[in-house]
Amino acid sequence: MAYDTPATPSTPAIPVLDLTEWQAAGPAHRSAVAARLDAVLRGTGLFLLRGHGVPPELTDRLRTEGRGFFGLPRELKERYRVARPYDNGWRGLGALQVGALDGMADASDLHEAFHVGPSHRTGNAAFDALYYPANKWPAERPGLRETMLAYTGHMTRVAHEVMTVLAEVLELPADFFTARCARATWTQNVNWYPSLHSLGHVRPGQMRVGPHTDFGTLSLLDRQPGVGGLEVWNEQDGWFAPPYEPDTLVVNLGDLMHLWTDGRWRALRHRVLAPSEIAPDEELVSLVHFFETDPDAEIVPLPAPVGGGEKLSPVIAGESILEKVGATVTLPG
After folding, report:
1. CATH number of the domain residue 248 falls in
2. Gap between the Cα atoms of 333 and 16, Å rounded
């Protein structure tokens, strides 16, 4: 049901949770798995997830559709450009600088992204426009919409299932987190990391994605391994590449979950390295689901002994997200 990936001198052991086995397990097995997850979430902020039920064919198809979109001429992609920081559509190279919140200046990220979000509507037009921006579906890639909708249906399901597990790890009611996620905001990214050959050069300090923590509750990442790939950080090991296992998702916690647990669990600090001269033709496509909560939910830190005792201040989830997103985006880009 859950085991630790083998540790190497450069790769600490990271638990792998099998959702299918968790759902069938008895109390004793769940307790043992919960202890492992709690330990890694206190120290690093991520684990691997198998048994999630996302069809591999669907994942492959979304990569193909996304890569087809990024291959369109720039003037066509411009039709679908994002118009403000918290928006859906296409972002070109240089439009994001997530390392800005980590103290990095003038180091725009070396990737293009296509974003979509939920279609929730509350009836409050101003609220909906702010938190549920309309999706921009490219007419040139008609298969992208159908594929993306099928994939994000799975991602929101998996996010709810993982949030339920996390509540049980903390010995809280199973719906403690998901009860505040009926109208959750989320963003699904298809990220394209171009090769060094296609970029031509990399400025000092530039990365495919600069060091940062995600802003929401948790993120679900389907990654491709590479020389210029994902690295994560903890105090004990510094920066290291997490283990890669085919057909698993990386689950990492974000700022809202760190606050919600009052510092008990860590928001994962991570980055994606620049393309390397060792592999100048390497290009990667990552699928990232950034899951948040209902945007008007007040996130109140859990008291000790469940919470970590950092005495963090409550926030309104959506306001917190908008503030941080606005600090990382350059328009146009």
Report:
1. 2.60.120.330
2. 38
